[in-house]
UniProtKB/TrEMBL annotation:
InterPro entries: ClpP/crotonase-like_dom_sf, Ech1-like, Enoyl-CoA_hyd/isom_CS, Enoyl-CoA_hydra/iso, Enoyl-CoA_hydra_C. Belongs to the enoyl-CoA hydratase/isomerase family. Pathway: Lipid metabolism; fatty acid beta-oxidation. One of its GO terms (biological process) is fatty acid metabolic process. This is Uncharacterized protein. CDD domains: crotonase-like. It holds the Pfam family ECH_1. Keywords: Acetylation, Fatty acid metabolism, Isomerase, Lipid metabolism, Peroxisome. The keyword Ribosomal protein does not apply.
Length: 275
């Protein structure tokens, strides 16, 4: 598939290197605030990338001066049924589940996703980046689990994923309960991001370099590794070991294994078939 196959109003897709896609949240005039269209576009683009045999790793960033300012506060279309809390509740649940699915599409996308974060990364931005595999930031990046400040408990991933990304649960609870800003230095110290570089250009370059390294691997190995890491995060060590044994009893039969092993020994670059 080529860039022209990716037609979205609020996300831009390019292919800066072989087997690497770059997704940009693209409402720069509104600081990439996430409106209804963007929720849907994020889900759709990651589902499409999952099924694209020409993509093996993905960079995710924001266009303009930030990653995202979070939920679009001016275009909330909440499914309220007047004078009926019960019917409203029945409509709210699928509404929230749909938004969750849009971001879970990043986590279950098969291909590794590297977030390149600059400027504000607020509210929904934390939900998005915790669904990514790797997070890099520029020095000017700052973050806030802002939901508490707009009167809601975060409901599209942060409260579930952030404690699994960062081991320091006291820090996580402080952020989620206060909504205070934290900068890229603090994010690095706490392990929320794994690299901080000078500016937007550098953070996209760093993410692209990592995505390119991943894209050079056997897709069978890279997809399996992401899948097993996600599974193991949510299960006991023994369950994870049993699961990877089952997975690999099939996957180890791939010709990618002898191809990769031979390339290692010959100190050459292996070429792997498309999925
Ligand atoms: C079911 C619920 C699911 C998910 C829930 C997620 C919850 C959240 O995401 S909570 C977080 C919500 N976001 C915020 O509270 C941040 C709001 N924005 C700001 O505080 C500021 O914009 C800023 C990020 C601090 C940046 O300030 P500044 O540099 O002064 O720029 P502005 O002039 O404020 O913004 C430029 C332009 O963008 C528009 N905009 C910015 N953020 C949003 C937003 N979140 N929603 C809608 N629009 C936004 C702003 O209005 C400006 O537009 P103009 O047309 O130029 O006026």
């Amino acid at each position: 598939m080529s860039a022209s196959a990716y037609n979205f109003e609020t996300v831009k897709v390019s292919f800066p290197a072989e087997f690497v896609a770059h997704v940009e949240l693209n409402r720069p005039k509104k600081l990439n605030a996430i409106n209804d269209t963007m929720w849907t576009d994020i889900g759709a683009v990651f589902n499409q990338l999952r099924d694209d045999e020409n993509v093996r790793a993905i960079v995710l960033s924001g266009s303009g001066r930030c990653f995202t300012s979070g939920l679009d506060l001016f275009s909330l279309n909440l499914p309220v049924v007047p004078d009926d809390p019960s019917r409203t509740a029945f409509k709210f649940r699928p509404y929230i589940k749909k938004l969750q699915d849009c971001l879970t599409a990043i986590e279950i996308c098969d291909k590794a996703v590297v977030a390149a974060i600059h400027g504000p990364c607020i509210g929904g931005g934390i939900d998005i980046t915790t669904a990514c595999d790797i997070r890099y930031a520029s020095k000017d990046a700052y973050f806030s689990v802002k939901e508490v400040d707009i009167g809601l408990a975060a409901d599209v991933g942060t409260l579930q994923r952030l404690p699994k990304v960062v081991g320091n649960i006291g820090w996580v609870r402080e952020l989620c309960l206060t909504g205070r800003n934290f900068d890229s230095k603090e994010a690095l110290e706490q392990g929320f991001v794994s690299k901080v570089v000078d500016d937007y250009k550098a953070v996209v370059a760093a993410a692209l370099a990592t995505a390119t390294l991943i894209a050079e691997k056997s897709p069978v190995a890279a997809i399996g590794t992401k899948h097993i890491l996600n599974y193991s995060r949510d299960h006991t060590v023994q369950e994870g070991l049993d699961y990877v044994a089952t997975w690999n009893q099939v996957m180890l039969t791939t010709p990618d294994l002898p191809t990769a092993a031979a390339a290692q020994m010959q100190k050459t670059k292996a070429v792997f078939a498309k999925l």
